[in-house]
Amino acid sequence: MVSFAIRVLKREWVIALVTISIFISVMYYKVLQNPNHFLVASGDGMKNYYTFMYHVKYDSSFMTFEGMNYPFGENIIFTDNQPLLANATKIFAKIFPGILCKLPAIHNLSLLIGIIIGGIGLFLCFRYLKIEFYFSLLCTLGLIILNPQTARFSAHFSMFYPVLPWIFYVWMKFWESKRPILMSTIIGLVITLSGLLHMYYFITGSILTCLSIFIYYVNNRYKGRLMEIIKVSVLQVILPFIILNFLSSYFNHSSDRPNEPWGFFTYHSAWEGLFFSYKLPLYEFINNNITKVRWLDSEGKNYIGLASVLVILYGLYQIIFNIKTCLAYINRSNLVKYFTWIFILTSLISFGYPFTISGFEWLLDYTGPFKQFRSIGRVGWVSFYAINLLSIALIYQWLKEKKLHPILFYTIPLIIL
Q: Which of 109, 141, 411, 412 has the maximal Cβ count within 10 Å?
């Protein structure tokens, strides 16, 4: 482990950073040509440019947005203006006022820097799983394109940042680390800071960490470790919740904000949203020639990629015809068990279960703050990363055992993604 860490710190992450940066620059070259004059906007996009720039330029405080809800103003968390980025820019603008003329560029470039940083986190996850350097790098590039958050670049900018790979990376280190408090502090910090970009990072990150804590301590026989479980839970979930809830409620200028926003029973996912890309020919072929595929709202579309679909189908085959061997394989590796359960459980949550099952809708009334997150389909982001980290690791091992020609070895992962 020491030699691996030294290699990553000294050489590999630098190469990955340069490669991912070049890749993103090519993908978004139109933005980079003139970032201060390029507005990537549709739907809510223009509103989000407005709330970001107005807050930096004109608001007299850090937590109140004065450009709407006159004369009271609005808590900036509810204006979707990326409070962490907006307030950091606001502070720098007081020192360097010239940047006020470059706010569109700062906004656009921050998005691209964010996806690069997320790509590094994903790359480190693959390397931690002992996947060879170039294979990890190619799969990272593929998943950067495939990840469901890329669609947010045209509207919900604050949800464009791939934060989850970093939480997965720290959790993998947590699983094999003897420093749970340090790892928990890092995870709590990531969840809190990302929650200040958008609150859905809190809900997706906290669901991931709650499930991770449960799986970890059940797997490791949690008896006698109650105080450690409490400390870990406080650092990873409860403390971020308290901080974010304070910031969203203390500076709340609206007394009639709905406690039950509309959308939970519409903006959820389903198995079709994971298995099909509605933009690819495979969907058209199956929908037109075999069976009709249910159409989902965009919030429920979290296509996991062909590689993961094939791994799941193979896994289902093994469960049906060779369940003992399949369960023995899953139980042999902590990380295989971890990714498998995280994928299954977060997929069910993204489907809105059990609340979207006919007859169980009333249960949602008793979920407290949870029902505020009306687009529950976004939890599918966690499912996307969990199944791809698992499936790519399994495919890599299979390809390595087959001893394929190097060209095929590095081409296959890009094709099947």
A: 141
